[in-house]
C-alpha cells in the first residue's frame, strides 16, 4: 500500500506544554508535525515563528516538521526556518512576489518545498513549477484558524490536483489541511490526498492514539 502521512497541526495543541504535546502526538503514531505560521497580515491571526521550531528541535523532536507559512512577504522567513530545522516549507503563491524564486530558496537548502492553495485559489499556479514541488497543499478551510468545517468543494479540487500530479509523473505529495476528521478522511483519501493535516480533531480528543488509529483505519479502507 502507498504510504500516507498524518500531520497533526500544533495550532490546537496546548502551547504552554508544546514540547510534551508534540512528543505525545508522535508517540501516538503521528508521522509529521504540522507547524502553522501566521503573521496577522496575510491571515488575521498571529502564531509562532522560527524560534519555536528551533526550540522543538532542541527539545529532541526528530520527526519531520512541516512549516505552513501564512505570511507575506514569504522569502524573508525561509532562511530562518531552514536554520531552525524545518523539513518541509510551504507557502501561498499569492503571498510571494516570485513563486519560482521562493521555491528555489527552499530547495537550495535541501528542504522540501510546496505551494498552498486556498479554497478559491486556482491550481494553475503550480503549472510551470511542478519540477520544484515536493508537496501540493490544498486548504479545505480559509486559512487563519483551527476548528473550522471542511469545505466540500475541496473534494473535486483534490481530484483535479491528483490528476495533474499523476499526469506529471513526478513524486509530489497531495496534502489536505482544514476540518479533517476521522469521519471524513475516507472520502478525502478516495479523492486523492496522501498527507493529512488535522489539528482540532486530534488535539481536542481525550486520547490522541485512538483518533490517529481511527484515521489510519479509514485511510486504509479508502486505499483498498
Ligand atoms: O492551516 C491551518 C489553518 O489556517 C491549520 O493547519 C488547520 O486549520 C488545522 O486545524 P483543523 O484541523 O482544526 O481545521
Ligand atoms: Fe496549516
Automatic annotation (TrEMBL):
The active site is at residues 36, 177. Substrate binds at residues 9, 68, 144-147, 177-179, 199-200. It is an enzyme of class 5 (isomerase). The keyword Metal-binding applies. SUPFAM superfamilies: Ribulose-phoshate binding barrel. Binds 1 divalent metal cation per subunit. The keyword Iron does not apply. InterPro entries: Aldolase_TIM, Ribul_P_3_epim, Ribul_P_3_epim-like, RibuloseP-bd_barrel. Its EC number is 5.1.3.1. It catalyses: D-ribulose 5-phosphate = D-xylulose 5-phosphate. A divalent metal cation binds at residues 34, 36, 68, 177. One of its GO terms (molecular function) is D-ribulose-phosphate 3-epimerase activity. Keywords: Carbohydrate metabolism, Isomerase, Metal-binding. It comes from the Bacteria. Pathway: Carbohydrate degradation. Its cofactor is Zn(2+); Co(2+); a divalent metal cation; Mn(2+). PANTHER family: RIBULOSE-5-PHOSPHATE-3-EPIMERASE (PTHR11749). Belongs to the ribulose-phosphate 3-epimerase family. Catalyzes the reversible epimerization of D-ribulose 5-phosphate to D-xylulose 5-phosphate. This is Ribulose-phosphate 3-epimerase. It comes from Thalassolituus hydrocarboniclasticus. The gene is rpe.
Amino acid at each position: 500500500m502507498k504510504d500516507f502521512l498524518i500531520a497533526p497541526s500544533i495550532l490546537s495543541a496546548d502551547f504552554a506544554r508544546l514540547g510534551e504535546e508534540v512528543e505525545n502526538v508522535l508517540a501516538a503514531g503521528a508521522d509529521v508535525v504540522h507547524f502553522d505560521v501566521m503573521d496577522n497580515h496575510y491571515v488575521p491571526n498571529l502564531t509562532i515563528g522560527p524560534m519555536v521550531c528551533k526550540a522543538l528541535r532542541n527539545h529532541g523532536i526528530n520527526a519531520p516538521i512541516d512549516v505552513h507559512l501564512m505570511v507575506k512577504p514569504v522569502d524573508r522567513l525561509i532562511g530562518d526556518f531552514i536554520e531552525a530545522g524545518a523539513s518541509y516549507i510551504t507557502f501561498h503563491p499569492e503571498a510571494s512576489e516570485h513563486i519560482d524564486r521562493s521555491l528555489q530558496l527552499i530547495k537550495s537548502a535541501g528542504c522540501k518545498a510546496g505551494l498552498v492553495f486556498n479554497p478559491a485559489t486556482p491550481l494553475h499556479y503550480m503549472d510551470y513549477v511542478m519540477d520544484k514541488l515536493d508537496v501540493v497543499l490544498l486548504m479545505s478551510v480559509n486559512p487563519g484558524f483551527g476548528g473550522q468545517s471542511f469545505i466540500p468543494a475541496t473534494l473535486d479540487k483534490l481530484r483535479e490536483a491528483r490528476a495533474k500530479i499523476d499526469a506529471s509523473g513526478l513524486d509530489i505529495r497531495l496534502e489536505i489541511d482544514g476540518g479533517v476528521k476521522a469521519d471524513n478522511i475516507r472520502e478525502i483519501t478516495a479523492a486523492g490526498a496522501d498527507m493529512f493535516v488535522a489539528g482540532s480533531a486530534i488535539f481536542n480528543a481525550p486520547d490522541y492514539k485512538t483518533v490517529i488509529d481511527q484515521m489510519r483505519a479509514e485511510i486504509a479502507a479508502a486505499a483498498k
